[in-house]
Write a structure and sequence with these properties.
single chain; 372 residues; alpha/beta; 6-stranded antiparallel β-barrel; 10 helices; 17 strands; 26% helix; globular
Length: 372
C-alpha cells in the first residue's frame, strides 16, 4: 500500500481495539506513534498502591514498547473536568439526560488528538471506533461500522470535515470477532481476555452517586419534590429530579397498583410526572442545535433516526423550522423521547446529521392555531 504521508497518531486506550489499530497500521507500513489520554482517575484503575499511572496507561505503554513505537501520555484531567464533566452535571441539573461521549468526541477527544498530531508531526490520527469514512466528491462521509453490534456512529455525528478528512478508522469494515482472532494470532492473548468496560469512563458505578460527589449537598437541594399524575395531582414524593430519566420504571419506590413510568421531568418545579407505557409514545420530536449536511435535500424524504445508542433506527421525516431547529415526524410511534440525548439521522448506513433532543413540551411553540 502506497502512502504519500505515513505518520499516524493512534489514540491508545490499552484495550483490544486500539491495540489492533496499532498492529494493522504497522502492517500497512505507517509510522505509528501512540498517545493515551489521562482524563479521570478511578480507584479500580490502580492495581497496586503507590502506582503512578492507571493500569490502562501502563498497558498502552507496555504494548508500545513491545511494538517499538513512541508513546506519550496526555494529562487532560483538568480540561476534561471543566468541559465534559461540567456539561454532564449541568445537563442533569437542567432535567435532561446527557450523552457525555457525544459531547466529548468533537469538543475534547479529537481536538486533543489533533493537537498532539500537529505537535508530533503526524499526518493522520487513528482510533479504534467501529465506523467508516468514505471520500465522495471531495467531501468525507461518516458511515456505520459493518459490525452492527459494535457500530459507534451514534457517538461521532458531530465530527466535521476537518476531523473526518484526517482520521483513520481501521476497524470500521471488520467484525469484533475478526479483531479478536487477529489480535490472538499476533500473540496478544491478554488483550483478548481483558474485560472491556461498557460504562462511561468517569463514572465508577451509579451516575446518581457521581452527581452527589460532584455537588455536595445535592440531596438536600433537590429533596421535597413530588411525583404527579397526568392532571398534576401529587401522588407521592421522590428523591430529586436529577435522579430520574424519561422511561424509567424501576427504582421509583412508589406503589400505584400498576406499572408506572417517568413521562416528564420538570426541573423548575422539581416534579416527576408518572404514567403508563402508552404515554411515552409519540409521533413527533423537537431537535435543537442540529447539524445537517443538506437539510433541504432530505426535508421531504423518509430517512431514519436513532434516538439513543443501540436503538433501532426509526423511519421519519424532518421538517426544518424557522429558528434553525428541526421537527421530526415518525412514521410509527417512538417511545421514551429523552431530552439531552442525541438524535442521529441516517440515509441508509450514512450519517447525514444529528442534534440534541429537546423538551417535547416546546413543540407547542410551533403549532399552528388549528393544530393547537
Amino acid at each position: 500500500m502506497e502512502h504519500e504521508r505515513k505518520k499516524v497518531l493512534v489514540g491508545m486506550s490499552g484495550g483490544i481495539d486500539s491495540s489492533a489499530v496499532c498492529l494493522m497500521l504497522l502492517d500497512e507500513g505507517y509510522e505509528v506513534v501512540g498517545v493515551t489520554m489521562r482524563v479521570w482517575d478511578l480507584p479500580r484503575q490502580f492495581a497496586d498502591t503507590g502506582q503512578e499511572y492507571p493500569d490502562f496507561i501502563q498497558d498502552a505503554r507496555t504494548l508500545a514498547a513491545r511494538l517499538g513505537i513512541a508513546h506519550y501520555v496526555a494529562d487532560e484531567r483538568t480540561a476534561f473536568k471543566d468541559i465534559v464533566v461540567r456539561n454532564f452535571v449541568d445537563e442533569y441539573l437542567a432535567g435532561r439526560t446527557p450523552n457525555p461521549c457525544v459531547m466529548c468526541n468533537p469538543a475534547f477527544k479529537f481536538r486533543v488528538l489533533a493537537e498532539w498530531a500537529d505537535k508530533l508531526g503526524c499526518d493522520y490520527i487513528a482510533t479504534g471506533h467501529y465506523v467508516r469514512v468514505k471520500e465522495e466528491s471531495g467531501r468525507y462521509g461518516l458511515y456505520c461500522g459493518v459490525d452492527g453490534k459494535k457500530d459507534q456512529s451514534y457517538f461521532l455525528w458531530r465530527l466535521g470535515q476537518k476531523e473526518l478528512s484526517r482520521t483513520l478508522f481501521p476497524l470500521g469494515g471488520m467484525t469484533k470477532e475478526y479483531i479478536k482472532s487477529y489480535v490472538l494470532e499476533r500473540g496478544f492473548k491478554e488483550k483478548v481476555e481483558k474485560k472491556e468496560s461498557m460504562e462511561v469512563c468517569f463514572i465508577p458505578g451509579d451516575y446518581r452517586d457521581f452527581l452527589r460527589e460532584m455537588i455536595p449537598g445535592l440531596d438536600e437541594q433537590v429533596a421535597g419534590g413530588f411525583f404527579v399524575d397526568r392532571i398534576g395531582r401529587k401522588i407521592g414524593q421522590h428523591k430529586g429530579f436529577p435522579f430520574y430519566t424519561i422511561g424509567q420504571r424501576k427504582g421509583l419506590e412508589i406503589a400505584l397498583g400498576k406499572p408506572a413510568y417517568v413521562i416528564k421531568i420538570n426541573a423548575v418545579k422539581n416534579t416527576i410526572r408518572l404514567g403508563d407505557a402508552e404515554e411515552l409514545l409519540t409521533r413527533e420530536m423537537l431537535v435543537e442545535h442540529p447539524e445537517f449536511e443538506n437539510r433541504e435535500r432530505y426535508a421531504d424524504r423518509t430517512i431514519s433516526v436513532r434516538i439513543r445508542y443501540r436503538s433501532t433506527p426509526l423511519p421519519a421525516r424532518i421538517q426544518p423550522l424557522d429558528d434553525g431547529n428541526l421537527k421530526v415526524i415518525f412514521e410509527k410511534d417512538a417511545s421514551a423521547i429523552t431530552p439531552g440525548q442525541s438524535a442521529v439521522f441516517y440515509d441508509g448506513d450514512r450519517v447525514i446529521g444529528g442534534g440534541i433532543i429537546a423538551d417535547q413540551r416546546a413543540l407547542k411553540r410551533y403549532q399552528t392555531p388549528k393544530e393547537a
